[in-house]
Design a protein that fits this description.
By secondary structure, the chain is of the alpha+beta class. The chain folds into two domains: 205 residues, no CATH class; 143 residues, Heat Shock Protein 90. The protein is 69% helix and 12% strand. It is built from nine helices and seven strands. The strands form two sheets. It has a five-stranded mixed beta sheet with strand order 3-4-5-7-6, covered by helices on one side. Strands 1-2 form a two-stranded antiparallel sheet.
Length: 357
Amino acid sequence: MTDAALSLKELYDKANADLEKARRELNEIEALLRQTSNEVEKLQQRELTVSNRLRDLDVNIDRYNKADIKNFYASAQEVQMRLLTMRSQLEQLQYRQQATKQRQSLLFDLITALEPFLGAATPAGNVGGMVGGDQLIADIIQAQEKERLRISLQMHDGPAQSMSNLVLRAEICQRLLDRDPEMARAELSALKNAINTTLQDTRRFIFDLRPMILDDLGLAPTLRRYVQQVSEKNKLEINLMVQNLDMRLPSHYEVAIFRFIQEALNNVIKHANASQARVLVSVRDDLGGARMIHVSVEDDGSGFSVNEVLSDESGRRNMGIATLRQQVETLLRGEFGVESAIGRGTRVEALIPLPAG
Protein backbone atom coordinates (compact mmCIF):
# COMPACT_ATOMS: atom_id res chain seq x y z
CA MET A 1 0.00 0.00 0.00
CA THR A 2 1.40 3.41 -0.96
CA ASP A 3 2.01 6.23 1.48
CA ALA A 4 -0.95 8.13 0.03
CA ALA A 5 -3.20 5.10 0.47
CA LEU A 6 -1.96 4.68 4.05
CA SER A 7 -2.72 8.33 4.77
CA LEU A 8 -6.21 7.95 3.36
CA LYS A 9 -6.73 4.79 5.41
CA GLU A 10 -5.59 6.56 8.58
CA LEU A 11 -7.95 9.46 7.82
CA TYR A 12 -10.78 7.02 7.15
CA ASP A 13 -10.19 5.14 10.42
CA LYS A 14 -9.94 8.39 12.40
CA ALA A 15 -13.16 9.69 10.86
CA ASN A 16 -14.92 6.43 11.79
CA ALA A 17 -13.62 6.68 15.36
CA ASP A 18 -14.68 10.34 15.58
CA LEU A 19 -18.11 9.43 14.19
CA GLU A 20 -18.57 6.77 16.87
CA LYS A 21 -17.44 9.27 19.51
CA ALA A 22 -19.93 11.84 18.19
CA ARG A 23 -22.69 9.22 18.33
CA ARG A 24 -21.91 8.48 21.98
CA GLU A 25 -21.80 12.21 22.80
CA LEU A 26 -25.15 12.71 21.09
CA ASN A 27 -26.71 9.90 23.14
CA GLU A 28 -25.36 11.49 26.35
CA ILE A 29 -26.62 14.94 25.36
CA GLU A 30 -30.07 13.60 24.54
CA ALA A 31 -30.23 11.81 27.90
CA LEU A 32 -29.32 15.10 29.64
CA LEU A 33 -31.91 16.89 27.51
CA ARG A 34 -34.64 14.55 28.71
CA GLN A 35 -33.60 14.98 32.34
CA THR A 36 -33.36 18.76 32.04
CA SER A 37 -36.71 18.98 30.23
CA ASN A 38 -38.37 17.03 33.04
CA GLU A 39 -36.79 19.32 35.62
CA VAL A 40 -37.99 22.41 33.73
CA GLU A 41 -41.54 21.03 33.65
CA LYS A 42 -41.48 20.37 37.41
CA LEU A 43 -40.15 23.87 38.10
CA GLN A 44 -42.85 25.36 35.90
CA GLN A 45 -45.49 23.67 38.02
CA ARG A 46 -43.83 24.95 41.19
CA GLU A 47 -43.64 28.45 39.74
CA LEU A 48 -47.35 28.33 38.91
CA THR A 49 -48.18 27.25 42.48
CA VAL A 50 -46.00 29.98 43.98
CA SER A 51 -47.48 32.59 41.63
CA ASN A 52 -50.99 31.67 42.76
CA ARG A 53 -49.92 31.99 46.38
CA LEU A 54 -48.46 35.43 45.71
CA ARG A 55 -51.67 36.55 44.00
CA ASP A 56 -53.67 35.39 47.00
CA LEU A 57 -51.20 37.26 49.20
CA ASP A 58 -51.73 40.47 47.21
CA VAL A 59 -55.50 40.17 47.55
CA ASN A 60 -55.58 39.10 51.21
CA ILE A 61 -52.39 40.66 52.55
CA ASP A 62 -54.01 41.40 55.93
CA ARG A 63 -54.26 37.66 56.60
CA TYR A 64 -50.49 37.15 56.54
CA ASN A 65 -47.75 38.24 58.93
CA LYS A 66 -44.40 39.68 57.88
CA ALA A 67 -42.59 36.34 58.22
CA ASP A 68 -45.06 34.62 55.89
CA ILE A 69 -44.79 37.42 53.34
CA LYS A 70 -41.00 37.27 53.45
CA ASN A 71 -40.99 33.48 53.04
CA PHE A 72 -43.44 33.61 50.13
CA TYR A 73 -41.34 36.12 48.20
CA ALA A 74 -38.09 34.31 48.99
CA SER A 75 -39.62 31.04 47.76
CA ALA A 76 -40.87 32.71 44.56
CA GLN A 77 -37.44 34.23 43.88
CA GLU A 78 -35.72 30.88 44.47
CA VAL A 79 -38.05 29.04 42.08
CA GLN A 80 -37.73 31.71 39.39
CA MET A 81 -33.92 31.74 39.59
CA ARG A 82 -33.79 27.94 39.47
CA LEU A 83 -36.16 27.87 36.49
CA LEU A 84 -34.08 30.52 34.69
CA THR A 85 -30.92 28.50 35.29
CA MET A 86 -32.46 25.24 34.07
CA ARG A 87 -33.89 26.89 30.96
CA SER A 88 -30.43 28.25 30.21
CA GLN A 89 -28.94 24.77 30.63
CA LEU A 90 -31.64 23.37 28.35
CA GLU A 91 -30.81 25.92 25.67
CA GLN A 92 -27.09 25.15 25.91
CA LEU A 93 -27.79 21.42 25.56
CA GLN A 94 -29.91 22.08 22.48
CA TYR A 95 -27.03 24.07 20.94
CA ARG A 96 -24.60 21.23 21.75
CA GLN A 97 -27.00 18.73 20.25
CA GLN A 98 -27.24 20.72 17.01
CA ALA A 99 -23.46 21.15 16.78
CA THR A 100 -22.84 17.44 17.42
CA LYS A 101 -25.35 16.48 14.74
CA GLN A 102 -23.63 18.79 12.27
CA ARG A 103 -20.23 17.29 13.14
CA GLN A 104 -21.70 13.80 12.74
CA SER A 105 -23.08 14.73 9.32
CA LEU A 106 -19.71 16.13 8.17
CA LEU A 107 -17.89 13.00 9.31
CA PHE A 108 -20.44 10.84 7.54
CA ASP A 109 -19.88 12.79 4.31
CA LEU A 110 -16.10 12.48 4.69
CA ILE A 111 -16.26 8.71 5.20
CA THR A 112 -18.61 8.30 2.25
CA ALA A 113 -16.23 10.32 0.06
CA LEU A 114 -13.19 8.25 1.10
CA GLU A 115 -14.75 4.83 0.57
CA PRO A 116 -14.37 4.70 -3.25
CA PHE A 117 -10.62 5.36 -2.94
CA LEU A 118 -10.13 2.63 -0.33
CA GLY A 119 -12.49 0.02 -1.70
CA ALA A 120 -14.03 -0.15 1.74
CA ALA A 121 -16.71 -2.72 2.28
CA THR A 122 -18.74 -0.53 4.57
CA PRO A 123 -21.97 0.50 2.76
CA ALA A 124 -22.42 4.23 2.32
CA GLY A 125 -25.69 4.14 4.22
CA ASN A 126 -24.28 2.23 7.22
CA VAL A 127 -21.28 4.06 8.61
CA GLY A 128 -20.23 3.62 12.23
CA GLY A 129 -23.37 1.59 12.93
CA MET A 130 -25.69 4.44 12.00
CA VAL A 131 -28.05 3.61 9.16
CA GLY A 132 -29.15 6.65 7.13
CA GLY A 133 -32.85 5.84 7.60
CA ASP A 134 -32.36 5.33 11.33
CA GLN A 135 -30.64 8.70 11.59
CA LEU A 136 -33.52 10.37 9.76
CA ILE A 137 -36.02 8.75 12.14
CA ALA A 138 -33.92 9.85 15.13
CA ASP A 139 -33.82 13.41 13.78
CA ILE A 140 -37.60 13.42 13.29
CA ILE A 141 -38.24 12.13 16.82
CA GLN A 142 -35.85 14.68 18.28
CA ALA A 143 -37.54 17.47 16.31
CA GLN A 144 -40.90 16.32 17.67
CA GLU A 145 -39.61 16.37 21.24
CA LYS A 146 -38.14 19.82 20.74
CA GLU A 147 -41.45 21.07 19.37
CA ARG A 148 -43.35 19.55 22.30
CA LEU A 149 -41.01 21.32 24.71
CA ARG A 150 -41.52 24.63 22.89
CA ILE A 151 -45.29 24.19 23.04
CA SER A 152 -45.22 23.30 26.74
CA LEU A 153 -43.18 26.44 27.51
CA GLN A 154 -45.57 28.61 25.48
CA MET A 155 -48.60 27.00 27.13
CA HIS A 156 -47.14 27.70 30.55
CA ASP A 157 -46.21 31.30 29.83
CA GLY A 158 -49.40 32.03 27.87
CA PRO A 159 -52.80 30.30 28.28
CA ALA A 160 -51.96 28.50 31.55
CA GLN A 161 -50.92 31.72 33.31
CA SER A 162 -53.91 33.61 31.91
CA MET A 163 -56.38 30.94 33.01
CA SER A 164 -54.82 30.87 36.47
CA ASN A 165 -55.43 34.61 36.71
CA LEU A 166 -59.04 34.11 35.59
CA VAL A 167 -59.66 31.56 38.34
CA LEU A 168 -58.24 33.92 40.94
CA ARG A 169 -60.37 36.83 39.71
CA ALA A 170 -63.47 34.62 39.72
CA GLU A 171 -62.75 33.77 43.38
CA ILE A 172 -62.46 37.49 44.16
CA CYS A 173 -65.86 38.10 42.52
CA GLN A 174 -67.34 35.29 44.57
CA ARG A 175 -66.10 36.83 47.83
CA LEU A 176 -67.30 40.31 46.82
CA LEU A 177 -70.88 39.26 46.00
CA ASP A 178 -72.04 39.43 49.62
CA ARG A 179 -69.72 42.18 50.87
CA ASP A 180 -69.86 44.72 48.01
CA PRO A 181 -72.23 43.97 45.09
CA GLU A 182 -71.22 47.13 43.19
CA MET A 183 -67.54 46.23 43.30
CA ALA A 184 -68.45 42.65 42.37
CA ARG A 185 -70.25 43.90 39.24
CA ALA A 186 -67.23 46.00 38.28
CA GLU A 187 -64.92 43.05 38.86
CA LEU A 188 -67.21 40.79 36.78
CA SER A 189 -67.06 43.29 33.91
CA ALA A 190 -63.25 43.30 34.10
CA LEU A 191 -63.30 39.50 34.31
CA LYS A 192 -65.39 39.32 31.13
CA ASN A 193 -62.85 41.47 29.28
CA ALA A 194 -60.00 39.35 30.60
CA ILE A 195 -61.74 36.16 29.45
CA ASN A 196 -62.24 37.64 25.97
CA THR A 197 -58.55 38.62 25.79
CA THR A 198 -57.48 35.15 26.91
CA LEU A 199 -59.80 33.59 24.32
CA GLN A 200 -58.25 35.66 21.53
CA ASP A 201 -54.74 34.83 22.71
CA THR A 202 -55.62 31.12 22.81
CA ARG A 203 -57.03 31.28 19.28
CA ARG A 204 -53.81 32.91 18.06
CA PHE A 205 -51.83 30.21 19.86
CA ILE A 206 -53.87 27.48 18.13
CA PHE A 207 -53.47 29.23 14.78
CA ASP A 208 -49.69 29.30 15.18
CA LEU A 209 -49.66 25.58 16.00
CA ARG A 210 -51.84 24.47 13.10
CA PRO A 211 -54.11 26.92 11.24
CA MET A 212 -57.46 25.28 10.55
CA ILE A 213 -57.95 27.36 7.40
CA LEU A 214 -54.82 25.79 5.93
CA ASP A 215 -56.80 22.58 5.51
CA ASP A 216 -60.08 24.31 4.61
CA LEU A 217 -59.02 27.13 2.28
CA GLY A 218 -55.38 26.50 1.38
CA LEU A 219 -52.04 28.22 1.56
CA ALA A 220 -52.77 31.71 0.17
CA PRO A 221 -55.67 32.65 2.53
CA THR A 222 -53.75 31.22 5.49
CA LEU A 223 -50.68 33.30 4.67
CA ARG A 224 -52.77 36.47 4.31
CA ARG A 225 -54.28 36.02 7.75
CA TYR A 226 -50.99 34.99 9.34
CA VAL A 227 -49.05 37.91 7.85
CA GLN A 228 -51.73 40.34 9.04
CA GLN A 229 -51.54 38.97 12.61
CA VAL A 230 -47.73 39.05 12.69
CA SER A 231 -47.67 42.57 11.27
CA GLU A 232 -50.14 43.91 13.85
CA LYS A 233 -48.57 42.12 16.80
CA ASN A 234 -44.96 43.10 16.05
CA LYS A 235 -45.45 46.52 14.39
CA LEU A 236 -43.70 45.18 11.31
CA GLU A 237 -44.84 46.19 7.84
CA ILE A 238 -45.09 42.99 5.77
CA ASN A 239 -45.89 42.97 2.06
CA LEU A 240 -47.26 39.61 0.89
CA MET A 241 -47.37 38.70 -2.82
CA VAL A 242 -48.90 35.42 -4.03
CA GLN A 243 -48.64 34.85 -7.79
CA ASN A 244 -50.06 32.09 -10.02
CA LEU A 245 -51.01 29.95 -7.04
CA ASP A 246 -54.56 29.23 -8.15
CA MET A 247 -54.50 25.53 -7.21
CA ARG A 248 -54.37 23.52 -4.01
CA LEU A 249 -51.07 21.82 -3.23
CA PRO A 250 -50.69 18.48 -1.43
CA SER A 251 -51.24 18.95 2.30
CA HIS A 252 -47.61 18.33 3.31
CA TYR A 253 -46.43 20.91 0.74
CA GLU A 254 -48.78 23.57 2.10
CA VAL A 255 -47.78 22.82 5.70
CA ALA A 256 -44.04 22.82 4.92
CA ILE A 257 -44.20 26.08 2.92
CA PHE A 258 -46.26 27.74 5.65
CA ARG A 259 -43.77 26.59 8.31
CA PHE A 260 -40.87 27.85 6.18
CA ILE A 261 -42.41 31.33 5.98
CA GLN A 262 -43.38 31.22 9.66
CA GLU A 263 -39.83 30.33 10.71
CA ALA A 264 -38.32 32.95 8.39
CA LEU A 265 -40.56 35.71 9.79
CA ASN A 266 -39.78 34.57 13.35
CA ASN A 267 -36.09 35.03 12.53
CA VAL A 268 -36.82 38.50 11.16
CA ILE A 269 -38.69 39.47 14.33
CA LYS A 270 -36.07 38.03 16.72
CA HIS A 271 -32.83 39.04 15.00
CA ALA A 272 -33.20 41.47 12.10
CA ASN A 273 -34.33 44.72 13.78
CA ALA A 274 -36.29 45.31 10.59
CA SER A 275 -39.11 47.76 9.88
CA GLN A 276 -40.29 46.08 6.68
CA ALA A 277 -40.44 42.58 5.27
CA ARG A 278 -41.56 41.12 1.95
CA VAL A 279 -42.97 37.63 1.41
CA LEU A 280 -43.30 36.22 -2.11
CA VAL A 281 -44.87 32.91 -3.14
CA SER A 282 -45.12 32.28 -6.87
CA VAL A 283 -45.39 29.43 -9.34
CA ARG A 284 -43.18 29.67 -12.44
CA ASP A 285 -41.41 27.57 -15.07
CA ASP A 286 -37.68 26.92 -14.83
CA LEU A 287 -35.35 26.83 -17.84
CA GLY A 288 -36.21 23.20 -18.50
CA GLY A 289 -39.94 23.89 -18.48
CA ALA A 290 -40.60 22.23 -15.10
CA ARG A 291 -43.09 23.94 -12.79
CA MET A 292 -41.48 25.32 -9.64
CA ILE A 293 -42.71 27.04 -6.49
CA HIS A 294 -40.57 30.06 -5.58
CA VAL A 295 -40.72 31.25 -1.96
CA SER A 296 -38.83 34.30 -0.74
CA VAL A 297 -38.74 36.19 2.57
CA GLU A 298 -36.78 39.45 2.56
CA ASP A 299 -36.25 42.14 5.21
CA ASP A 300 -34.56 45.54 5.49
CA GLY A 301 -32.90 44.73 8.81
CA SER A 302 -29.36 44.73 10.13
CA GLY A 303 -28.21 41.67 8.14
CA PHE A 304 -25.25 39.44 8.96
CA SER A 305 -22.18 37.80 7.48
CA VAL A 306 -23.47 34.58 5.90
CA ASN A 307 -20.06 32.85 5.82
CA GLU A 308 -19.38 33.70 9.46
CA VAL A 309 -22.74 32.41 10.66
CA LEU A 310 -22.65 29.22 8.59
CA SER A 311 -19.17 28.40 9.85
CA ASP A 312 -20.16 28.76 13.51
CA GLU A 313 -19.26 25.32 14.90
CA SER A 314 -21.27 25.81 18.09
CA GLY A 315 -24.48 25.82 16.03
CA ARG A 316 -25.90 28.70 18.08
CA ARG A 317 -26.04 31.25 15.29
CA ASN A 318 -27.10 29.07 12.39
CA MET A 319 -29.92 27.02 13.93
CA GLY A 320 -32.58 29.13 12.22
CA ILE A 321 -30.91 28.72 8.83
CA ALA A 322 -30.43 24.99 9.42
CA THR A 323 -34.15 24.63 10.18
CA LEU A 324 -35.14 26.48 7.01
CA ARG A 325 -32.75 24.42 4.90
CA GLN A 326 -34.04 21.17 6.37
CA GLN A 327 -37.66 22.12 5.68
CA VAL A 328 -36.89 22.80 2.01
CA GLU A 329 -34.24 20.25 1.11
CA THR A 330 -35.33 17.30 3.25
CA LEU A 331 -39.10 17.62 3.26
CA LEU A 332 -39.71 19.06 -0.22
CA ARG A 333 -36.58 18.04 -2.18
CA GLY A 334 -36.05 21.67 -3.13
CA GLU A 335 -33.17 24.14 -3.16
CA PHE A 336 -32.47 26.63 -0.38
CA GLY A 337 -30.47 29.85 -0.48
CA VAL A 338 -29.70 32.77 1.82
CA GLU A 339 -28.27 36.22 0.97
CA SER A 340 -27.31 38.83 3.53
CA ALA A 341 -24.77 41.51 4.33
CA ILE A 342 -24.27 43.62 7.43
CA GLY A 343 -26.51 46.66 7.19
CA ARG A 344 -28.24 45.47 4.03
CA GLY A 345 -30.95 43.11 5.22
CA THR A 346 -31.48 39.42 4.52
CA ARG A 347 -33.27 37.30 1.95
CA VAL A 348 -33.98 33.57 2.29
CA GLU A 349 -35.30 31.70 -0.73
CA ALA A 350 -36.61 28.28 -1.63
CA LEU A 351 -37.13 26.75 -5.06
CA ILE A 352 -39.42 23.71 -4.82
CA PRO A 353 -40.45 21.33 -7.62
CA LEU A 354 -44.20 21.41 -8.12
CA PRO A 355 -45.64 17.95 -7.45
CA ALA A 356 -46.98 16.20 -10.55
CA GLY A 357 -50.73 16.02 -10.97
